[in-house]
Here is the input.
Amino acid sequence: MPSLSTRGVELSWSERGQGDSVLLVHETATGAAAWEPLAREIARGARAIGYDRRGWGRSTVPEGYRRTTIEEQSEDAAVLIEATAAAPATVAGAGIGAVIALDLLLRRPELVARAVLIEPPLLALLPDATEVLSQDAAAIETAVADGGLEAAVGLYLSGGLTALGAGAGRLPTTLTSEARERPRSVFAEIGAPIAWRVPLLRFAAADRPSLIVTSPSTPHLLREAGRALGARLAGADEATVEVDRTPPHVGAPDRVAALIHGGGPSSA
Here is the structure.
C-alpha cells in the first residue's frame, strides 16, 4: 500500500477501479479493512479509495498522540483527496468517519461531490443524550480504575457504552482486534464527535447532496441522531438498509454500493 506524508503522520491508502472517485472513511476501532467488501463492489463502476486514518492499520501517529479532532481528521482526508486527484469525490464514512465526511462537505465543498453518512453519531443534536453520555464517562472511569485502558477498550467493543460506543459491539471481532493493541488510538478519538462544534448554520446552507444510511439494527440513539441531522442538513436524504446485527457497510456491502452508485434515497 502506498503512503502519504501529511502533518506529522504517514497515511496508508489504496485504490481500485476506475471512474468517479469514492473515498471511504472508517469508524473507530478498525481500519480500512472494514471497507474491503464494499470497496470491491464500488470498484465495479467507480474508483474506490480506502485509507487507514491516523493511528490505525499501517498509518502512524505523532509522538505523544493522545487526542484528535474531527477537523484534524477531515484535513487528513482533504490532503488525500488532493494528492490522489480525486476531487470532487463522493465521501462515504461510518461512525466517526461519517462526521469526518460531513465536516469535509461543509468546510471543503470543492472537494466533495456528495457525502454518504452511515450511522453518524451526532449525539449533540439529541438533548436527551446528555445523561447517557455522563453514564458512559463514569463507566469508562470505573473500567480504567479496575483494569486500565485495555479494560475500557473491552467495554467499548462489547457495546457497553450506550452513547460513546453506540454500535461498536456490532463490528466483527476480526475487524477490531487491533483496537485492543492500540487502546490510546481508541480513546484519542471516541470523544471527537461529541466535541465537534455542530455548525447548524452551515447545515442549513450546505450545497452538496448527502445520504444518511441506517438499518433496523442501528442503535436507537444513532437512528435518532440520523433523523435529527436529516431534518437540519440541506440536501440530505435518508435510506434504510435491511441488515441484521452489523453496520450496513459491513453486512450489506452490495446494497450500500448500490446506494452510492445510484445517488438517491431508497430502502435496500
Q: What stands out?
A: Strands lie at 3-6, 9-16, 21-25, 47-51, 89-94, 112-118, 210-214, 236-240. The chain has one domain: 3-126+193-262. The radius of gyration is 17 Å.
